[in-house]
Amino acid sequence: MEPLEQRTAAVLGGDARQAWAARALCAADWQVRLWRVPECPAAPACGETKETAEEALEGARLVLCPVPCKRASAEDWMRLLTPKQTIVGLNLPKSLREFCDSRGVAAHDLLEREDFITLNAIPSAEGAIAEAIALSPGNLHLSQVLVLGYGKCGRVLAQKLRGLGAHVTVAARRWESACAAIADGSEALDFLLLPYHMPRFQYVFNTIPAMVLGELMLNALPREAVIIDIASAPGGVDFTVAKQLGIAAKLCPGLPGKYAPRSAGEAVAQTARIIWEEQEGNAWGWNKPVLGSD
Q1: What is the pTM of this model?
Q2: Are 61 and 8 in contact (CB under 8 A)?
Q3: Pick from 85, 67, 45: which is nearest to 268 by CA?
Q4: Which of 20, 205, 226, 270 has the fewest Cβ atoms nearer than 10 Å?
Q5: How many structural domains are present in the chain?
Q6: Residue 156 sits in the same domain as residue 50
Q7: Does residue 284 surpass a pLDDT of 70?
Q8: Rounded CA gap, 154 and 121, in Å?
Q9: Residues 173 and 247 in one domain
Q10: Res 39: pLDDT
């Protein structure tokens, strides 16, 4: 097990999620150094603020990249990284990953891990629902709601919408996903049938990072409908056509940081710690073997 005095983390820039992630690391007995992390209610317990990235990174074994991590800003500090460090972030730029590979630095993108994706789907879904409520004059309760895609986020979103009393239909390309949606309590449709069903939906939530709501689909949708797109940019909606038709449509990136920075930041910290322990070969928490198990 790594000695506590060597468990030093550098938390770099980003939004309020980083401050909460830093606080969670402090609570887990990590020494935390901050650089350009915004202030938040957690600030007094977040760690030690450093003036430069070099001061924050010196001797740090775990590095939380800014959220979001952009190529231009990463170039300011990535050349300070060493092979002794473990880098964790969301949507790591290609240039940063290539640099880490060339230097033998372990780099982990949280959006490639099933555990983090599952946790991050919760604030994403809650934020999407908040955006829909803000855009519509009507209730979600008893409304006809369409969820496009049934991955981690689509599944959590559909579950929470059903909990609010909405009639939820899921559009899925894979039969297995459609079966899962039906088993969970939603109606399921094949994408080929969607144009015939679009007129009945008052809300549409898209989770698919591909163009799925083009002119044909949008023309069939009621003009008072609300579309919330939480897929990766540029999303899956033709926003130009939606605007021409007078349909309220919004691309909503970064919902966890906007609506639930504490929960999202704690998920970042927890997953980063698990990555660290896995990399160090330590069995702990859920990773510990249970006596008598296979």
Answers
A1: 0.89
A2: yes
A3: 67
A4: 270
A5: 2
A6: no
A7: no
A8: 8
A9: yes
A10: 78
